[in-house]
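Exercise: predict the fold of this chain.
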Amino acid sequence: MVPAPLWACSKASRRLLVRVLRKIQYAVMRIPLWLKIGWTVAVAVWAPLYWRQYGPQNFLFFCDLGNFFITAGLWLESSLIFSWQACGLLLFQTLFVVDLAVALASGRHFIGGSEFMFDPRIPLAIRLLSLFHVVAPPLLLWGIWRLGYDSRGWKYQTLTAWIVVPSNYFWRPEFDVNWARGPFFREQHFVPGWLYLLVYLLAVPALVYYPTHRLLLRWMRRWHPRS
């Protein structure tokens, strides 16, 4: 006997089928739908306001670029994307959070980098949207815990740096995005620019991305011994 097509079923049957399909979808979904939608909406609000405030070059900061990658990682439920972004962002975002917390508690910046959060010349809405720096580290760690860690992540982040940082060096160099021209948003003049760029592209993967990769591997083996 050939089953009746879905359109020929009664309303009650169609509703029941839709409910069952939704339950199946939610059962296999490893990242909750509300988180996917919430993060996507937040990024959709954040992006045009940041563009108007800072300009297009700002989206090449690894932290800002990471918002788009995280959006893709949430919807694709991709352990590679979460691992990739964690290797590049965890250290710097965590330092930002520490500096912000110390500044809120003592009025002094222990490390530096969060000064703009207290700048009255920047609209409050922009500063509040910048709190994504605080949300990103736990979200990345949770995503890796949930989806697993992909050991290729640090290599993808290295390749990203090798593409993005030279772009920062040549395009709108006055903004010194990602410190492509010198540390702390000041162009350095101690060595030739090309030498600084070369050292940057070799040192950051070796001193930041790879050690973060090793720490994440150790963390995952501790919490998921069989993974």
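Check your answer against the key: Residues 70 and 139 are 9 Å apart (CA to CA).
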